[in-house]
Amino acid sequence: MSEQYQHRARKRFGQNFLHDAGVIHRILRAIHPRTEDRLLEIGPGQGALTEGLLDSDGHLDVVEIDLDLIPILTHQFGQRSNFHLHQGDALKFDFNSLGAAPGSLRVVGNLPYNISTPLIFHLLDNAALIRDMHFMLQKEVVERMAAGPGSGDYGRLSIMVQYHCRVEHLFNVGPGAFNPPPKVDSAIVRITPHDVLPHPAKDHRMLERVVREAFNQRRKTLRNTLKALLDAQSIEAAGVDGSLRPEQIDLAAFVRLADELTNRANSNPIGTEN
Fold it and tell me: Nearest 5°: phi and psi at 148?
């Protein structure tokens, strides 16, 4: 990078720039971009992955929040006809504005750790547009996303991501692959929205509510942690053992609890805010 375009990583944006060529090539192999792809890179930074994505000749939109990186990216890639740069905050970005066909968007990013979870929830709200997502995340976050019942990592993030998507923890990446090196290990995850939801809830907002309430006090039993929403009889009616802790029950059971709450709300609209 020329002196004219020097840039230092900024803490407020959680920037840790990927520089390890071996890791970059491994990520690109996992993504396997093709000419017909509609690609979206979130937080391209200094363009470590961007060039490889562009070389596929697929249509690439990138969203970058750091104004100081815009001239760097424009200088490097602005002449490429398949490169389209958007300056803005990915947490507020309207993905529908890209005009991508349903189920076509392939999302890629080395995500800042401080926004990774809210950004994933924002993307899940747009899952109908997305074909797959490949992210570099804090290893702990990937482990939480991929966790199953009975694991200490299993929680709200696991359930809500797995409700919408299949999660694959692909490989880990050490701090030395970045500049500056982060204080934690990272991991690459592939997240693929389900063509058909395996356990569709009658109202996914009720599922979010039940899961949030359940894991607010994860060491308590469901009977106790959900008492503001469902009584013991309702939990039993959903076919769930109320003496279990939330980390002990699977996605399907949480959906049954959410549907029980939806049924109660529909039969007693005035009492929906129990």
Answer: -110, 170
Contacts of 119 (CB under 8 A, 6+ apart): 42, 90, 91, 111
Please tell me the pTM assigned to this model.
0.88
Q: Give the C-alpha separation, 174 to 248, whole Å.
A: 31
- Give the Cα separation of 36 and 38 in Å (integer): 7
Q: What confidence score (pLDDT) does residue 269 get?
A: 63
From residue 259, alpha-carbon distances to 20, 65, 156, 270 in Å are 47, 39, 17, 17
Where are the domains positioned within the chain? 3-193, 204-271
3-193 folds as Rossmann fold (3.40.50)
Q: Is residue 13 packed enough to be buried (19+ CB in 10 Å), middle (13-18) or exposed (0-12)?
A: middle
Mean pLDDT rounded to a whole number for the chain: 91
Domain 204-271 in this protein, CATH class: mainly alpha
- What pLDDT, in 10s, does the model give residues 28-74? 999 999 999 999 999 998 898 999 999 999 999 999 998 989 999 99
